[in-house]
Amino acid sequence: MIVQGNDAPGLAPGLYIVAGPIGNLGDLSPRAARILREADVIACEDTRVTAKLLRAAGSDRPMLAYHEHSRAEVGEGLLERMASRSVALVSDAGTPLVSDPGHELVRAARQRGIPVTTAPGPCAAIAALSISGLPSDRFLFAGFLPARAVARDKAIAALAALPFTLIFYESGPRLGATLAALATALGPREAAVARELTKLHEELVTGTLTDLASRYGSSPPRGEIVLLVGPPEAEVATADALDQALEAALRTMAPGKAAASVAAALGLPRGEVYARALDLKNTNPESGDPR
Ligand code: SAM
């Protein structure tokens, strides 16, 4: 079946959510660059930052500042434009709407029946997760924790029991205090600090929350940071046990049967086990082909 994509020449009217690089201009996709060259107007956070991106994309399209403080005032004008022209939204870095403006605009566009199209690409949270080695089958992106200690600790307490890898954005000066608060509330869970991803000084440091809190407590790192915290220990053990049992079962059984047998043995929900069985089967299609 051939499905019509969004690559016809010229841009149809509507809103285009365009992901840009998180530090390395080489990560701007050809499709994103094309949208930036062809859109009638580019809505962006900081016109100085986006001017560099547009130069790299070979675009001379006009920019309009759409940020925290201009959202209400500029939003309505953008929505009116989108009805008959193409508007691209970019952030200073990565994917718009991820700890960045855009949610209200997309929502309002949808409510008015204006087409909204994605040009997906880099996102610091996903880039960090992909190299962290922490469980990636289920994760929760929690953005920036509140700056004030009481609100921050309350936010951490609300996340403590979740059986997912947690992903936070954080700044260098606050990293030590955040790690200490996380270590106090969650104990010595596995964690990772991903810094300056895709840039010259890219670095990933792993360890327990306690180790990392002491490493960064007195020497705040420079640059941009993603902080990841593994799920509670029991979850890691369960996930490992599940994969081992499924891999063994898939050698002799079809995914449905393997999932039923493993779900019963480990006392886990059958639907979740079946989904994992399919993942494993897809990542390793060689693992037998039982009929
Ligand atoms: N929309 C962006 C995205 O898709 O990742 C995030 C915008 S948010 C305002 C900026 C935060 O993302 C930074 O403070 C930092 O925590 C994280 N970040 C952005 N670029 C990064 C990079 N290259 N390496 C590590 N963290 C990064």
In angstroms, what separates the terminal alpha carbons? 27 Å
* Distinct small molecules bound, one entry per kind: S-adenosylmethionine
Shape: globular
Percent of residues in beta strands?
15-25%
Number of helices: 11
Biggest sheet details: 5 strands, parallel
Summed over residues and divided by their number, the pLDDT gives a mean of 92
- CATH topology name of the largest domain, in short, is Cobalt-precorrin-4 Transmethylase, domain 1
**Helical residue percent?**
40-55%
The CATH level-2 architecture of the largest domain is identified as 3-Layer(aba) Sandwich
Strand order of the largest sheet: 3-2-4-1-5
Low-pLDDT regions: 1-8
CATH classification class of the largest domain: Alpha Beta
How many distinct domains? 3
Radius of gyration: 22 Å
Describe the structure.
The longest helix is centred in the last third of the chain and has 18 residues, at about 235-250. Strands 3-2-4-1-5 form a five-stranded parallel sheet, with helices on both faces. Residues about 1-10 have low confidence and may be disordered. The protein folds into three domains: about 15-120, Tetrapyrrole methylase, N-terminal domain (Cobalt-precorrin-4 Transmethylase, domain 1, 3-Layer(aba) Sandwich); about 125-230, 2-Layer Sandwich (Methyltransferase, Cobalt-precorrin-4 Transmethylase, Domain 2); about 235-285. Helix 10 crosses helix 11 (about 270-285). The chain is α/β, with parallel strands linked by helices and about 290 residues long. The chain has helices spanning about 30-40, 45-55, 70-80, 105-110, 125-130, 150-160, 170-185, 210-215, 235-250, 255-265, 270-285, and strands at about 15-20, 40-45, 65, 85-90, 115-120, 140-145, 165-170, 190-195, 205-210, 225-230. It is built from eleven helices and ten strands. It is globular. S-adenosylmethionine binds near residues 91, 169, 194 and 195.
